[in-house]
Design a protein that fits this description.
Helices cover 54% and strands 18% of the residues. With 181 residues, the chain is of the alpha+beta class.
Length: 181
C-alpha cells in the first residue's frame, strides 16, 4: 500500500492515505452532522488521527467532489454529508479502522460539549495582587443558578480548574448541592 499523505507530526496509528482521511471525515459528519471545518480539523488533529494540513486538503477535495456540502462559503459554515458521501461510506466504510473513527468522534463530541458549556456558563480567571480569582457560574437561560468565586495560588491551577469545570459544569453544582442537603 502506498502511503501518500503528509505525515508530519502524525503519531503511529494515524491515517496515512488521503482516501482513509476522506472516510474519517465522512464518517464524522454522518455521526455529527453540521460540524464546521475547524471543528473537524481540531478533532482529527487532537486525536492524532491524521495530519492537520492533509485533513484540511481532504475537506476541500470532498466538497469539490460533492461528498460534502456546506451551508455557506465561510470557514465556520456547517458541513453535511451528501448522498455521494453516504454511498462511499457504505461501500468503503469497513476500511476505516474502528478505533481511529471512535477516538476522533469522542474528541469531536468533547469539543462540542465544551463549546456549549462555554456558551451557557462562565469561567473567568482574574489576576489579584497575590494570586488569581476563579469565577464560575452555571446559567439556565438568563438566570444564574449558581456562582462560585475562589482564590487560586497560580495561573496554571486556575486554568486547570476552569477547564474541568467547562467539561462538566453540572457536576460541580451536583456536588455542592449534595453537600448542602
Amino acid at each position: 500500500m502506498q502511503y501518500d499523505a503528509f505525515k508530519g507530526g502524525l503519531p503511529d496509528g494515524g491515517l496515512q492515505t488521503p482516501a482513509d482521511i476522506d472516510l474519517l471525515i465522512v464518517f464524522m459528519l454522518e455521526k455529527l452532522d453540521g460540524l464546521t471545518k475547524p471543528q473537524i480539523l481540531e478533532a482529527i488533529s487532537s486525536a492524532g488521527s491524521a495530519n492537520y494540513l492533509e485533513a484540511a486538503q481532504c475537506v476541500v477535495n470532498l466538497l469539490e467532489r460533492g461528498a460534502l456540502r456546506a451551508d455557506g462559503s465561510d470557514e465556520d459554515a456547517p458541513l453535511h454529508i451528501t448522498q455521494n458521501g453516504r454511498t462511499a461510506l457504505a461501500v468503503l466504510g469497513d476500511n476505516l479502522p474502528r478505533t481511529v473513527g471512535e477516538k476522533t468522534l469522542r474528541t469531536a463530541l468533547r469539543a462540542q460539549t465544551r463549546l456549549r458549556n462555554l456558551e451557557a456558563n462562565t469561567a473567568e480567571i482574574e489576576e489579584t495582587h497575590d494570586g488569581y480569582t476563579l469565577c464560575l457560574s452555571v446559567k439556565e437561560q438568563e438566570d444564574t443558578l449558581f456562582a462560585l468565586q475562589m482564590y487560586v495560588a497560580d495561573k496554571i491551577q486556575a486554568q486547570s480548574m476552569r477547564d474541568r469545570f467547562l467539561t462538566e459544569p453540572g457536576k460541580l453544582l451536583d456536588v455542592i448541592t449534595a453537600a448542602l442537603l
